[in-house]
Amino acid sequence: MYRNLKKLKEILQQGSADVIIGKAGLSENVIKEVKRRLKDKGAVKIKFLKSALKVEGVDRRELARRLAESTGALLLEVRGRTAILYCEERETLKREDNL
Q: 93 and 74 in contact (C-beta within 8 Å)?
């Protein structure tokens, strides 16, 4: 979808977060929602609330890494409590949903 990842990061940094993760942490529903948005858009901006970090018991970078790993996405950047995930192969996510 996006050939220039630097340009993609610039575009996403300026907008608001697509998904906000709070006290539920990385629940199954949150992961499904992130996967859905990755499938639709190819990239997603996620905001971690302090309560999510407290519930999960990890720092922001580790939480972002875990989310990227569980969704099969590439972690482009973590700034503050905001992360940007990118999935080049959106078809991979579509196939996983059909299994």
A: no
Q: In the numeric block, which tokens belong to residue 75?
A: 């972690």
- Tell me the C-alpha to C-alpha distance, in Å, between residue 69 and each of 7, 11, 16, 75, 98: 23, 23, 23, 9, 19
Cβ within 8 Å of residue 39, ≥6 positions away: 87, 90, 93, 94, 97
Q: Which of 21, 13, 23 is nearest to 47 (CA)?
A: 21
- pTM value is 0.77
- According to DSSP, the residues that pair with 82 across neighbouring strands are 47, 79
Per-residue pLDDT reduced to its tens digit, 13-23: 667 888 999 99
The pLDDT tens digits for 49-65 are 999 999 999 999 999 99
Distance from C-alpha of 99 to C-alpha of 86, rounded to nearest angstrom: 22
**Which domains occur in the chain, in start order?**
5-98 (3.30.110.60)
